[in-house]
């Protein structure tokens, strides 16, 4: 489909509200929303719900806040999609620094492993022309299951690297600086410049957007720059939660999101949903709206409790917390299916 620009497409927040108001197979549970807000209230003053948790809690993330760290975030979020395995017990694994990583973290481990091997995988001048064989080697698995969509990852690396060289002098920091400390301007610049970030579809006759990877790229840029300097986005709270396949699962587990019996059975049977399917859109849209409502409820509870949270609580920090929570409660969540969509957008 020819890209006609972002005009005429609902923003992620508007899309989420519209979907939640019209959804048939997924709904937000207000009691569950409140319970999750109360769970988060207990953590509001903790290390998780603050921008420096991104580095403090995750050893694979860069320690620095320099240009190289920003370019690390860019190449990782360009490839930050579709890690789920056909069988949970047979998945891609990457060993790094004496530990074994799966899912999203297998991507980060592979990037760091390549850098240690002297492969400049975070440099656009390298990945603009990296070959498929080199990509197979860089993202090789230490289990007998390969990382999904390697060929798409190769195509996207070449496409994205070429554009970064042509338009932004080969560094994502130049793209950040052009956004003049506006998260929304950076989001727009990324979506307009890099086709693989155009996470848009339609629902009930309206063109809607999730921009999941563009939003998490803005969020991770804010985090790696520690919310300071070029990363001091005055409108960072306008970014919504990132509509992936893990957050809906944890929100159902916590009772804030509910699936119809028909949809739940379909997911339990492992039926795949296509990108843009009505039910897939309802899962993603209701999950985004659910986190917006949790945030509103949490801010109300904080107000009432008189507790002073450290810094501003926003949907990004709630998303990070819930995503990490899902990681740490993988076993408990076994009975709750995540939806299986194979695509390059999340
Ligand atoms: N909503 C949301 N989705 C996120 C992330 C992350 C990691 N990002 C931050 C978190 C810690 C680091 O500090 C990063 O900054 C990955 N994903 C998505 O999850 C899926 C992979 O899941 P699994 O198969 O279990 O590894 C896949 O769609 C991936 O795109 C997030 O934070 N929020």
From TrEMBL:
- What's its EC? 3.2.2.-
Kindly list the GO molecular function terms attached to this UniProt entry: hydrolase activity
Q: Would you kindly state one Gene Ontology biological process term found in this protein's UniProt entry? A: tRNA modification
Record bears the keyword Repeat: no
Q: Which keywords belong to this entry?
A: Hydrolase
Known catalysed reaction(s)? queuosine 5'-phosphate + H2O = queuine + D-ribose 5-phosphate
Where is the signal peptide, in residue numbers? none
Pfam families, per the entry: Q_salvage (PF10343)
Q: What residue intervals traverse the membrane?
A: none
What is this enzyme's class at the first EC digit? Answer: hydrolase
Q: What does this protein do?
A: Catalyzes the hydrolysis of queuosine 5'-phosphate, releasing the nucleobase queuine (q). Is required for salvage of queuine from exogenous queuosine (Q) that is imported and then converted to queuosine 5'-phosphate intracellularly.
Q: What family classification does the UniProt entry report for this protein?
A: Belongs to the QNG1 protein family.
UniProt-recorded name of the protein? Queuosine 5'-phosphate N-glycosylase/hydrolase
